[in-house]
TrEMBL record:
UCH catalytic domain sequence ranges: 1-198
Site positions (Important for enzyme activity): 155
Record protein name field: Ubiquitin carboxyl-terminal hydrolase
Root EC class: hydrolase
InterPro entries, A to Z: Papain-like_cys_pep_sf, Peptidase_C12_UCH, Peptidase_C12_UCH_sf
Keywords: Hydrolase, Protease, Thiol protease, Ubl conjugation pathway
Transition state stabilizer (site feature) positions: 47
Organism this protein belongs to: Meripilus lineatus
GO cellular component, one term: cytoplasm
Reaction it catalyzes: Thiol-dependent hydrolysis of ester, thioester, amide, peptide and isopeptide bonds formed by the C-terminal Gly of ubiquitin (a 76-residue protein attached to proteins as an intracellular targeting signal)
Keyword Protease: yes
Amino acid sequence: MVPQPVKAVILLFPITPDYETKRLTEDRQIKEEGQHPVDPTIIWIKQTIGNACGTMGLLHAFANSDVTVAPESPLAKFIDQCKTKTPEERSKLLEETELFADIHADAASAGQTEAPEADSRTDLHFTCFVQAPSPPSREEGIEVDETGMRLLELDGRRGGPVDRGISTNFLEDVSKIVKEVYINSTTSAEFSMLALSVPPQDEAEA
């Protein structure tokens, strides 16, 4: 049983030729034809550092959920700075701050295997899923969101946030997309999911 409420989900998945073809095709289609409007407050960071997708997944999860981050901490300051910057400027900020090195080192020391070097090749990748409000739109053909929430995928290798449709049950919606987009296109079993959840208020104060 996954503790509720879940604020973000990070997926580890194998990169396959079929997935790469779908990714490039979808990114090109979004660039040429557009997609459902994305909440302008979403913080998406373009990945420019090799083998940093796990760290990028964590940053996307914390930056786009209402979990409490320690005030004045390097992470809180980084997220606050990102709010007024473009995706490219956020990438540059991440490259220049010690935050990335600290998070990457902590993740490596906490894991069971050594983190790969930035220039080494890996066939596994991380992406992040979050829920976000649907911006009001008067465009024709835009589907109406009865719940007002959308499921977004945040991957620094993509062209930007990817709208995955209306979201009425976050965890169930993520599971459906993971099966349809990722699991069904490979026979690999190299998948793992991490849920960022917040304990109920009464338990947190116990």
